[in-house]
Task: inverse folding
């Protein structure tokens, strides 16, 4: 189980660090994911910094528990946005099929990071 937890921390850490960096260097990609009533640039940069921070936190034993909890919270916050994306005529993710697949994937991601959380 220890190997599995280590692999999950590396995968999630790398993914969230990468996503955070992408929010900063390619903010235009994420603008359609953010509802119009929110300040898009501010939300994008804040989310990018948060994603990078929690991803980085998975690489340090002192912060794994807090970082994995942060990822759980982010994934729960993002779930309604992904559901909203499915309802759009042209989903921000690209296609309806990908938007639909992303919903159960979100739950799979939640399960994986929960495993990290309870074993840290």
Result:
């Amino acid at each position: 189980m220890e190997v599995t937890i280590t692999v999950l921390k590396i995968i999630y850490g790398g993914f969230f660090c990468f996503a955070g960096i992408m929010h900063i260097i390619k903010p235009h990609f994420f603008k359609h994911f953010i509802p119009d009533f929110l300040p898009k640039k501010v939300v994008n940069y804040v989310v990018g910094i948060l994603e990078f921070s929690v991803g980085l936190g998975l690489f340090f034993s002192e912060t794994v528990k807090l970082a994995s909890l942060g990822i759980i919270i982010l994934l729960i916050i993002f779930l309604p946005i992904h559901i909203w994306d499915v309802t759009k005529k042209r989903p921000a993710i690209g296609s309806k099929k990908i938007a639909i697949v992303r919903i159960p994937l979100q739950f799979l991601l939640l399960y994986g990071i929960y495993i990290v959380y309870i074993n840290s």
